[in-house]
Design a protein that fits this description.
Helix 2 crosses helix 3. This protein has 2 domains: 80 residues, no CATH class; 160 residues, no CATH class. By secondary structure, the protein is an all-alpha fold. The N and C termini lie far apart (69 Å). It is globular. The longest helix has 31 residues.
Length: 257
């Protein structure tokens, strides 16, 4: 009887239960960071890694596509980790940014976005060619995925790419986001990522909004709004450039034009 009551409550209030679990994981992760690494590896990075492992293990156990959310009692993770709360969190970070700082670093931030988008598209395209893709649509879609996991499917849908190529572009973007999430706290001190101007340039170069926001929040929460804002512009520029200018350039290079 008690077990049935608990199971029913977990299913009825799955979102609240998800927040409670995340809170516990973060608390334990920060404790592990202080105990085992003396703070060298940030607690947020450990929490992110733990979440990825949990999603993988649960996916193997259930065979479903949603990780932890495939368990009825943990269905709240599907809402908590969905696009709505994610985008709300990203947009809300902009309210902590100082407009004077944004204006001061404006030119450098804009240049970083151009460089970041260009390098990501080219790098992704080179990898696509290395793995045997020859048509412009596939090359551009995978290249766009290397920019972010949002730019990839947007570009693929615009160009009529196949579902498997779009899936690869999303995978490429997710890998990039994960690397930036976990890696930012580790290399921040080595690259001078300790002020708003550097955060703006970093967001423009990396571009993955979720990865940059999480990584900077783990490094210094005050930097997150600046990096997230330039990374958001990065996504917009990528969605505009990849299926248009970049596609035309690749068509010329592949002889399809």
């Amino acid at each position: 009887m008690i077990a049935d009551i608990v199971a029913h409550s977990l299913r009825a209030y799955s979102l609240i239960f998800a927040f409670a679990i995340v809170g516990a994981v973060i608390w334990l992760s920060y404790g592990a960071s202080n105990l085992f690494t003396k703070g060298r590896i940030h607690g947020s990075a450990i929490a992110i890694a733990a979440g990825l492992v949990a999603a993988y293990v649960s996916g193997r156990m259930t065979g479903g596509p949603k990780g932890l959310a495939d368990f009825p009692a943990l269905a709240g993770f599907g809402v908590m980790g969905g696009a709505m709360l994610r985008d709300f969190a990203i947009v809300s970070t902009a309210f902590g940014a100082d407009l004077a700082t944004l204006r001061k670093v404006g030119p450098a931030g804009a240049l970083s976005i151009v460089i970041g988008v260009g390098l990501s598209l080219v790098a992704g395209a080179v990898i696509a060619v290395a793995f045997g893709y020859k048509d412009a649509v596939s090359i551009v879609t995978i290249g766009a995925g290397a920019a972010t996991y949002i730019v990839g499917p947007v570009t693929g849908a615009a160009l009529g790419a196949t579902s498997d190529v779009i899936a690869l572009s999303v995978a490429a973007g997710l890998v990039k986001a994960i690397v930036v999430m976990i890696g930012t706290p580790l290399w921040a001190s080595r690259i001078g990522l300790n002020n708003p101007g550097a955060a703006i340039v970093y967001g423009g170069l990396m571009g993955t909004t979720s990865g940059v926001a999480a990584g900077l929040a783990a490094t210094d929460p005050k930097l997150a709004p600046y990096g997230a804002m330039s990374a958001t512009f990065y996504t917009g520029v990528g969605c505009l450039v990849a299926p248009s200018v970049f596609y035309l350039v690749v068509r010329l290079l592949t002889g399809e034009a």
